[in-house]
Every structure is written in structure tokens, then in C-alpha cells.
Amino acid sequence: MRVLAAMSGGVDSAVAAARAVAAGHDVVGVHLALSRTRDAMRSGSRGCCSREDAGDAARAADVLGIPYYVWDLSEEFTRDVVDDFVAAYAAGETPNPCLRCNEKIKFAAVLDRALALGFDAVCTGHYARLDPAGPVLRRSADAGKDQSYVLAVLRADQLRHAMFPVGDTSKPEIRAEAARLGLRVAGKPDSHDICFIPTGDTRGFLADRLGTTPGALVDAASGETLGTHDGVHGFTVGQRKGLGIDRPAADGRPRYVLGIEPVSGTVRVGPEAALDVTAITARTPVWTSGAAPDAPFGCVVQVRAHGGTAPATVTPLDSAVQVELSEPLRGVAPGQAVAFYHPDDDGDVVLGSATITGTA
Length: 360
Fold this sequence. Notes:
Blueprint: E1 2-6, H1 11-22, E2 26-33, E3 42-43, E4 46-47, H2 51-64, E5 68-72, H3 74-90, H4 97-116, E6 121-123, E7 128-131, E8 136-139, H5 156-159, E9 162-163, H6 171-180, H7 202-210, E10 215-219, E11 225-229, E12 256-261, E13 266-270, E14 276-287, E15 297-302, E16 309-316, E17 320-330, E18 337-341, E19 350-359
Parallel strand pairs: 1-2, 1-6, 2-5, 6-9, 10-13
Antiparallel strand pairs: 3-4, 7-8, 10-11, 12-13, 14-17, 14-19, 15-16, 15-18, 16-17, 18-19
Helix pairs in contact: 1-2, 1-6, 3-4
């Protein structure tokens, strides 16, 4: 089988490519150039996809003895990930750019190009497991590294051409395997945070692009104005720090962001308990089986990359879903994805996902 291995420059994708080679596939490595200012894409262990990472990927490909190329997808990445991220925050939402990158870049732009070039599959270093016969997407064996949530946006036809070779192995074992193979990235720190904001200053990044749009911080219960802010893009539901309120609540407990109204510029705050939600509405569902369920079904939902799970009943609608939670979840924000997992087998199998539009 001809396999295109997406090599980020990290240890996971390097070992994934190595395993594809060991399995006897005809493997070609590709590194994705996602920014025209690549020197600014990494700061220490923050960010990824920099020139440093491209060099690490090239050296790994050389050790593995496979051809290696760099594909410039900076235009697509800016349009489909960065601009989408900025627009979502301006609309009072909390997007997940890693999820969008998987959906729009790695398993759309890259996969489409790979298939056009005669490849059979795209191989990545994601921590998830895949049974191609289904296709059935499962959580990884290493629960702490599981990335099935950010892959739950993939359609059945995309999963049929995907490979996740490291999903059955723990991260320490992957590092040990890389060392045995002579890969210099064996001890390379994991990248974290948003790759195109390597400083970690999301508020500053958004302010540079959206400017200042003053609004009010309002107590959700009393309607009292507690302060002002420079733009709703500086907040997300569930946020506690950086609210800029100069006096404590009447009960002395912290306040949290409960809701964001981008049109009026109002950010509503209140007690932690008010973050509990028992119902979620979500748009544009994607089903990993390729077919939408025709009746309500029980499942386990997840609303964040790590954590935020609860039993639920999902009712499919025309182009949306209604989710009724069996137990409340906190800090569920519009713009996040809600992923659906089969209730059996410890919630291991991904059924699909949708983008959250509202909560109750």
C-alpha cells in the first residue's frame, strides 16, 4: 500500500512513519508548511510546524530511508484554521483549532492531494485506534494521550484512508522505540498550546486582529454592571481569571464567565454552580459510520479534548442534534465540539461529533 506519512517533526509522527515502513508499505514523508512566518511558529515546547520541526522531520525521514517533501499549505491553513479561529472568538464562541486542522487540512487538503497522487492512505502520529473494516475509530490505549476527540470530525470516507499506527502504545513506549530506531526526536518535548500562538497569549493574538470593542461585564443574576472590557474575544465560558472585576462577589466566591453576547458586547458572569448544563444543541453533525442515526440513541459525550464526559441521549434533527445529559457538565461553550462515544466498551468507540451552538 502506498502511504503518505504526515511528519510534524515530533516523535509520534516519526514513529508512526517508522511503523508504516516496518509493515511493508511504500511510504513517503511529507511535512506541512502551515505559515509563511515559520520562524515564529515555535517557542520552546510551545507551537509546532516551524523550520526547526521541518528539519527534525527531514532527519527522521533520512533515518527511515524514505523520500521526504515539504508541502506549502499556509494559504489553506490561514483561511480554514486561523481565520476560522479569529471569527469564532469574535462571534463569542470557543473553537478548537486542532480539531479544525484535522478536519480541513490533514484529512481534507492533504488527503485529497494524496489520493490524487495515487496514495492509498495518510498516516499520522495521532493517539487513536482505527479498525479500517468499519471504519471504527476508537480511543487510544494511552488514555492520557487520547486524541479521538479531535478526530471525531472525520467522515467515514476519510477514515477509510487514514492510519494511526501509534494509538495502541503508550507515550513512554513510543519514546523508547524512537530511541531504538536512532531517531533524534526520541526525547523532543511535546508541543502544546495553539501552534500559531507560540507565546501562549491568545488574548493578545486576538486583540491584534480584532482590535478594541468595549463592552460590559454584567452580573447574570442581578443585572448589575461590574466593569468593562475591551472585547468579547478576550473571554470564554467557564473562564475565571483575567475578568478585570475589582471587587469580590457578595458571597466572597469567585465569578466565572457564564455567557457571551457578541452583538451587545455583554459578558455575563456568576457563580461556578451556574456553569452546570444539562442540555446541548449542536449543528452540522458528522457520523463516523457514514449514516445518520434515524432515532434517539444513548451514548457518552465529551465536550473537551481531555475530560468533560457524561452519559447522554442524542436526538438527531435535520442538520443538528439535541443532547440531553444524564448528569450536568460545566463550562460547555458554543463553538466547542461535542463528540459521541458508544456507551459500551467503556465509551471507547467514536460515533460522531457536532459543533455546540447552545446550552441549557
